[in-house]
Amino acid sequence: MINFIHVLDDNVINQIAAGEVVEGPYSVVKELIENAIDAKADSIVVEIKEGGKKFIRISDNGIGINEHEVEQAFMRHTTSKITKINDLDTLITLGFRGEALASIASVSQVEIITKTKDQQHGILLEITGGRIVNRKVVGCPTGTTIIIKNLFFNTPARFKFMKSTQVETSKISEIISRLAISKTDIAFKYINNNNIMFTTSGKGIVRDAIINVFGKEIAKNLIEVDESNKEYEIKGYISQPEHTRGNRNYEIIFVNNRFVKSKIIFSAIEDAYKGSVVINRFPICFLYLNINPSLIDINVHPAKTEIKVFDEQAIYDFIYDAIKKSLTKESTVSDFKINL
Ligand code: ADP
Ligand code: MG
């Protein structure tokens, strides 16, 4: 239909933006957990039903949202995290675009209950397809609980593109697992269809979190990596060469505490294993790299996991040597905490 030129309704704009921000249930889970982390929660409970397609609930004990700002949080481009563009240079939060809540609320049924520590009571707000349908004062603890029901109920084309419950569940599990082993000072609880999938203690011990999330069997066969020089530091665990996987799903790498997939880092690791693992088998690793931020360009798009490394040869050599060293020495496994 050709029409006169007009400004789009905010809700339509949000639904269009949701096409980018809300790829599926797993991106809802990611955005909401990141909000809980940004709110300084040290306990986060994630509950999903039917792969998150029907129901997602994230509860945190973070700072909560002030009663006068709850509606505002669901508007487009509203954030408490940055004010000017230069703030991005010193960003310490995971979010900053102020798009997630507005986008999610425009394509689902949302209920939020939130309270700050200075308020006596909390606020419950219900939003359906971007429109507020209920607001009331409720009693609740400090923090935020947000429930997302019936994702894409009002956008049939998007609804159709959601995958099976099993596929959507595994994407969500992957996201939560990564967050739980990178934010080990937060106690996570993950519940899927009323079954507790895992809990972490929040005590900051990386090996314990790996055991809780990935199981004792994987953790049993890990060797420690711990090397550093002026510019790079690598800590973490890698598998003995005889314990490998058929894909790269267990090559989990964090750079400056952010999950990344980097070709150069994968090659450095895999080359170090060459000769000791069969072709098309991949090591298991949980590696935490700290790199001087001026030596990398982290693409800040929320959905991207690539990074750009300025001196590829230097990082390759550093990682290759660190992995080789751990594989060849008689390694003892100790516990460590990551600097968060
Ligand atoms: P962003 O995270 O990019 O700022 P969001 O749309 O995800 O944008 O959230 C908007 C705002 O709502 C945040 O800046 C924050 O102030 C508030 N908010 C969202 N989730 C929470 C939460 N779990 N606890 C406290 N505040 C929250
Ligand atoms: Mg956010």
What is the strand and helix layout of this fold?
Elements: H1 10-21, H2 25-38, E1 43-49, E2 55-60, H3 70-73, H4 100-106, E3 109-115, E4 122-128, E5 131-138, E6 143-149, H5 156-160, H6 165-182, E7 187-192, E8 195-199, H7 206-214, H8 216-220, E9 222-228, E10 232-239, E11 244-245, E12 251-255, E13 258-260, H9 263-273, E14 282-283, E15 285-291, E16 296-298, E17 307-309, H10 312-328
Parallel strand pairs: 1-7, 12-15
Antiparallel strand pairs: 1-2, 2-6, 3-4, 3-6, 4-5, 7-8, 9-10, 10-15, 11-14, 12-13, 16-17
Helix pairs in contact: 1-4, 2-6, 6-7, 9-10
This protein binds adenosine-5'-diphosphate (ADP) and magnesium ion.
Residues 31, 34-35, 95, 100 line the site of magnesium ion (MG).
Domain DNA mismatch repair protein S5: 210-328
Family: Belongs to the DNA mismatch repair MutL/HexB family.
GO cellular component, one term: mismatch repair complex
